[in-house]
């Protein structure tokens, strides 16, 4: 794996993709990115797993440089704090098409991510009756079937990434402890050639 920039870690080995493909590790990495530095005990409370199990998974994530030790957030010297190393993780499936091992690892990781997205959206649907009406009304979900060339799909991908980056910057301007009405929002988009 090679860091592309300070915002993104790019996975390049089958081994690193297999490490991240575990559903608990995907969730832990997401929580560290969302919540900032945490201990195994804190993360264990959120995902309902024993701290020892969480520590094992955190060690695996650290072994591929997706997380690292963080500065202690309390005076308890027994606590071991962790933080994500970058805001994003990526890999390029097209670069793996000639290596069956890497391709299989990429497919496994993509399937784990798809299952995590589906579980998160299902939880949102279940929680809809408890959410404020204006938040339910502001949410978006949909799909379209387009007819595009590979060049047009590539251009759309670049435009979507630029759009998301703009809104990430907007979100970063909100104080997590503030009372400006900002709440965590999940964004998932997909665009691919229908097989």
General description of the model:
There is one protein chain. The chain is mainly α. It is built from seven helices and six strands. The two termini are 29 Å apart. The model has no long low-confidence stretch (mean pLDDT 92).
What's the arrangement of strands in the largest beta sheet?
1-2-6
Q: Report the helical percentage.
A: 40-55%
Report the mean per-residue pLDDT as an integer. 92
Low-confidence stretches: none
Shape designation: globular
Q: Structural class from helices and strands?
A: mainly alpha
Give the tally of β-strands: 6
Contiguous helical run count: 7
Summarize the structure.
The chain is mostly helical.
What secondary-structure arrangement, pairings included, does this model have?
Elements: E1 2-5, E2 8-10, H1 14-20, H2 23-35, E3 38-39, H3 40-47, H4 51-63, E4 67-69, E5 81-84, E6 88-90, H5 100-127, H6 133-138, H7 150-172
Parallel strand pairs: 2-6
Antiparallel strand pairs: 1-2, 3-5, 4-5
Helix pairs in contact: 1-5, 2-4, 3-4
């Amino acid at each position: 794996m090679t860091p592309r920039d300070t915002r993104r870690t790019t996975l390049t080995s089958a081994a690193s993709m297999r490490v991240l493909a575990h559903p608990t590790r995907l969730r832990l990495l997401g929580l560290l990115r969302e919540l900032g530095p945490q201990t195994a005990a804190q993360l264990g409370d959120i995902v309902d797993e024993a701290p020892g199990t969480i520590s094992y998974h955190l060690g695996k994530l650290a072994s591929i440089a997706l997380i690292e030790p963080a500065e202690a957030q309390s005076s308890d010297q027994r606590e071991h704090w962790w933080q994500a190393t970058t805001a994003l993780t990526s890999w390029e499936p097209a670069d793996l098409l000639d290596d069956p091992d890497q391709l299989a690892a990429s497919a496994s990781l993509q399937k784990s991510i798809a299952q995590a997205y589906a579980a998160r959206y299902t939880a949102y649907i279940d929680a809809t009756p408890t959410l404020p009406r204006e938040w339910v009304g502001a949410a978006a979900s949909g799909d379209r079937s387009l007819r595009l060339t590979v060049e047009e799909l590539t251009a759309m991908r670049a435009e979507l990434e630029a759009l998301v980056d703009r809104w990430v910057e907007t979100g970063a301007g909100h104080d997590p402890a503030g009372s400006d009405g900002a709440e965590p929002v999940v964004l998932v988009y997909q665009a691919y050639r229908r097989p």
